[in-house]
Automatic annotation (TrEMBL):
Keywords, comma-separated and alphabetical: Membrane, Transmembrane, Transmembrane helix
The organism's taxonomic lineage, starting at the top: Bacteria, Bacillati, Bacillota, Erysipelotrichia, Erysipelotrichales
Transmembrane segments: 78-99
A Pfam entry, by short name: DUF3916
Name used for this protein in its record: Uncharacterized protein
Length: 107
C-alpha cells in the first residue's frame, strides 16, 4: 500500500495555482506585515507527489512574488517582499510583505 500512486495531482495543482493567482497584496498596509500561505491541503509535500508538481508550484510561487514586487506602491515608506519556500515542507511556504522596517530587521 505504501507504493500506491497519489491520484489527482494535476487537478490539485491546477486548483492551488488558481488560488495563488487570486492573492491580493497591499490591503493591510497599516499592519506590520501581510502574509500569504499555500492555499491547499498538504498534498504538495507528500513523498508521492511528483517532482514536476513541486517544481510547478515553486515556479508559480516565485512568479507571484515577482508580480507583487512589480506592483509595489511607490507611496509606502518601507516595503520588502519576501518569498519563503520551505523544502521539503512546501506547505509551510509563505509570501511575506513587510511594512515595518524594525519588524523586518528583527524577523
Amino acid at each position: 500500500m505504501d507504493k500506491k500512486k497519489q491520484r489527482g495531482q494535476g487537478r490539485r495543482l491546477n486548483g492551488m495555482l488558481k488560488h495563488i493567482n487570486e492573492f491580493t497584496p497591499f490591503l493591510e498596509t497599516d499592519d506590520r506585515y501581510e502574509h500569504f500561505h499555500v492555499p491547499s491541503s498538504m498534498f504538495i509535500e507528500s513523498n508521492k507527489t511528483s517532482e514536476k508538481v513541486k517544481t510547478a508550484f515553486c515556479r508559480e510561487w516565485l512568479r507571484k512574488t515577482e508580480s507583487f514586487i512589480s506592483k509595489k506602491p511607490k507611496d509606502l515608506s518601507f516595503c520588502k517582499i519576501v518569498a519563503v519556500i520551505s523544502v521539503p515542507y512546501y506547505w509551510s511556504s509563505q509570501i511575506i510583505i513587510f511594512y515595518d522596517e524594525e519588524y523586518y530587521n528583527s524577523f
